[in-house]
Amino acid sequence: MRYLDVIVEDLGIAALILMIVIVSFSVFSRYVLKSTPPWVEDSALSAMVWFGFLSISYGMRTDAHIRVTVIDKLIPNAVFAKILDWFVWLMLLAFGIFLIVDGSEVCQLTATTIMPGLMVSSSWMFAAVPVSGIAIVLQLLQKVRKMV
Prior knowledge:
Shape: elongated
Number of strands: 2
Mean pLDDT: 89
Number of helices: 6
Order of helices and strands: HHHHEEHH
């Protein structure tokens, strides 16, 4: 599963760099050239959506997601702490499955909607949702396999 880590990380980095370049170009063209190309807003928004959703999966891999640690401190027994960990993993798995199912529906609903600046289907932007859900589920399965 190392290939998944590399793909998610590289796509996230590419989306962030693309977003920075596009927004910088937009500012330059607006204030220096006095004209902004029509594709700038839609492409920056798409890069931001992809970066945001891929970051969820990256956070799962690096354990960088937010967690309420006060509950961990209230549970003195290691067995109950392990049960809580499994409960959290099940909730995250449900979230990943939700992203896959509902994200796929959103992609289907927006298939005929065209982003005016890019002249492509909005599904390309919303495809980040189910792709992120798949990456989350695979990251969780990898974590559970290491724990068992």
